[in-house]
Specification:
about 120 residues; about 20% helix; 2 helices; HIT family, subunit A; five-stranded antiparallel sheet; alpha+beta; single chain
């Protein structure tokens, strides 16, 4: 699947759509989800490289391994900064429409702030 530069996350990166950012560095931004699935629901996305980003987990290549590791570590730090570490939180990455992926720009959800249902 080719990267769509007009997806909502690309527009957020370009400040064409407002977001409530909670974290930002040279590689990632994190912002609050506008339709949260938990009391705290933050999305972490990589910035574009050469105008594109991986479309999701299935679009990753071996050379993305270090970036994905930093993505998870960044999400973990954000969860701690948001006060989620003591009670627990969930990191979720969907791959494909059947899994519920609606934006095809690699992203990781941080969910917490209350009891979350079990995941099989």
């Amino acid at each position: 699947m080719a990267y769509d530069a007009d997806n909502i996350f690309a527009k957020i990166l370009r400040d064409e759509i407002p977001s409530t950012r909670v974290y930002e560095d040279d590689e990632f931004i994190a912002f609050r989800d506008i339709a949260p699935s938990a009391p705290t629901h933050i999305i972490v996305i990589p910035r574009l490289r050469d105008g594109v980003a991986p479309t999701g987990p299935a679009g990753l290549a071996d050379e993305d391994a270090a970036m994905v590791g930093r993505l998870v570590l960044t999400a973990t730090r954000i969860a701690e900064e948001q006060g989620l570490a003591s009670e627990g939180y969930r990191l979720v990455m969907n791959s494909g429409e059947a899994a519920g992926q609606t934006v095809f720009h690699l992203h990781l959800h941080i969910l917490g702030g209350g009891r979350l249902g079990p995941v099989a």
